[in-house]
Amino acid sequence: MTSLDCPAADRFVADTWARELVPALQHYITIPALSPAFDPAWEANGHLERALEHVRSWMAARPLAGLTVSVHRLPGRTPVIVADVPAFGPAAPAPGSPSVLLYGHLDKQPEMEGWRDGLGPWTPVLDGELLYGRGGADDGYAAYASLTALEAIQRNGGSHARCVVLIEASEESGSPDLPAHVGALAGQLGPVDLVICLDSGSASYDTLWLTSSLRGMAAGTLHVSVLTEGVHSGSASGVVPSSFRIIRQLLDRVEDAATGAVLLPEANVEIPPYRRAEAEAMAAALGEGAGVGYPFLPGVEPMVPGGAEALLARTWRPALSYIGADGLPPSGRAGNVLRPFTGLTLSLRLPPTADPEAAQAALAARLTADPPYGATVRFDNGGSAPGWNAPDLAPWLRAALDRASVDAFGTPIQLMGEGGTIPFMGMLGERFPGAQFVVAGVLGPGSNAHGPNEFLHLGYARRLTSIITRVLDSHTRA
Questions:
Q1: Closest CA to 147 of 465, 408, 425, 440
Q2: For residue 384, what are the β-bridge partners?
Q3: Domain range for residue 14?
Q4: Has residue 340 got a pLDDT over 60?
Q5: Does pLDDT of 289 surpass 90?
Q6: Looking at the predicted structure, is the pLDDT value of residue 393 above 80?
Q7: What's the burial of 76, exposed, middle or buried (CB within 10 Å: 0-12/13-18/19+)?
Q8: Pairwise CA distance, residues 379 & 127, whole Å
Q9: H-assigned helices in 30-101
Q10: E strands present in 52-141
Q11: Same domain, 369 and 398
């Protein structure tokens, strides 16, 4: 039996959130710490460094036994905060036992347009249980919640293994810098048997949703050029092929325009029966409209009806999105000119078990082979990232999570696939094949990560922090 005083730990977590975490997050939200992909001059601009120092100083001030907090730096790469907390408590594992790795990030997505009046990306606004602003939910809260959970254990009679908290600064760019850091830190990390990641989502705010899979990604920018300079459309159209029409033809090679189906064999996998059953259980729990709760305009219909098929469409099937464009002037400044080139940035979400490098290579090959009219076509590789399919939960972990979820929400955990990508999970799955994973997060309905009006649901974040407290304590007796 645990010696952790769970009610007292919960009270500590709630008080710390109200007294310290909310003000700290409000300050963090004011810092426009864009990820390097969106701020190539991040070193000169200094915003990532400001966010890093704000988070580092808060972490270093925590009264945790033996805590050390450092910043790991590699030339030309974004830094990583490393917090190391020795094993603690009456059930603490012996020295040399495997550690727990807790993960979060502090870099942010761009501002985006469409914020409601009174809201903005760098303006923290507290409205009841919702804290608006960029990065609070994705994923600034993770560093604060992780150390608060450890402090709740140490103050209230509990135990935890050695814990290492990694807070990176390039996740929103696909974590290009993290593998080098993890490799350099391998000796310090040592063996790991439990990974806790707080950068995922939830399907509702009334139970604990544990992420069972993540999609991978392949990305790049397709350029089609036909002229050395723009020419009068009245003079040239009908003779000079449109770069936009050529790009449409190329895209038809990789996506069915009528259905959205991705036509690359390398991007498709057989959905495991147990994940299909999981989607059906999730749809039953969420009820009518499961999987299609997005802000559609009136009259717009989803690509698939709600239910298990919608959930699988966003978690186990590939999908191609067009997230940027070059060569197209704003409509108000568009003259009657046949443009010399068109560029589109593509984001291809991949099933969790698809090979991202193979999909990336197939995408590039299909788009650039035998271009129509002999146009100049190139595909600038935007990188790929692996998906992740969770291992089965160990009996001790499933029992601990269920107990903690019942205490926090009154219901046991629910499993869900997630449509986003956390490259770190795929990398860790390969590095620590015997580890257990707890991947969860606060990005629930309406939280709108990456978009306007992003918010952190404080009630859910508090409960998740308390759940992590119980899991870390239970881990010492696994």
A1: 465
A2: 218
A3: 6-214+387-475
A4: yes
A5: no
A6: yes
A7: exposed
A8: 45
A9: 42-45, 47-60
A10: 68-72, 80-85, 99-105, 125-127, 130-132
A11: no
361 vs 299: CA distance, rounded Å: 38
The CATH number for 241's domain is: 3.30.70.360
- When divided into structural domains, the chain yields a total of 2
Residue from 208, 71, 92 nearest 150 by CA: 92
Share the mean pLDDT of the chain. 96
Same domain, 334 and 457: no
CATH of the domain at 69: 3.40.630.10
Measure the CA dihedral 143/148/154/159, to 10°: -60
Question: What are the backbone angles phi and psi of residue 345, rounded to the nearest 5°?
Answer: -95, 125
Q: Domain boundary at 385, 420, 439, which?
A: 385
Give the pLDDT confidence score for residue 1 in this predicted structure. 56
Which residues are within 8 A (CB) of 108 and not within 5 positions of it... i.e. 6 or more apart? Answer: 32, 33, 34, 35, 134, 135, 138, 172
- Kindly state whether residue 301 falls inside one of the protein's structural domains: no
Q: What phi and psi values does residue 466 have, to the nearest 5 degrees? A: -65, -35
The CA distance from 95 to 114, in Å, is 52
**Residues 238, 168: one domain?**
no
Residue 448 domain-assigned (yes or no): yes
Residues near 12 by beta carbon (within 8 Å), at least 6 away in sequence: 151, 152, 155, 156
d(CA 469, CA 13): 9
**Spatial CA neighbour of 384 closest among 418, 410, 412, 361:** 361
Residues 6 or more apart whose CB falls under 8 angstroms from that of 259 comprise 303
| Longest pairwise C-alpha distance within the chain | 84
Asked whether residue 160 falls in the same domain as residue 95, the answer is yes
Q: Hunting for tokens 């147990």 — which residue is that?
A: 274
Residues 392, 374 share a domain? no
Q: Is a pLDDT exceeding 80 seen at residue 2?
A: no
CB-based burial label for 45 (10 Å; 0-12, 13-18, 19+): middle
pTM for this model (two decimals) = 0.89
CA distance 153 to 143: 16
Q: Are residues 117 and 243 in the same domain?
A: no
| CA nearest to 59, candidates 76, 80, 33 | 80
Rg (CA), the chain: 24
Q: What are phi and psi for residue 232, nearest 5 degrees?
A: -55, 125
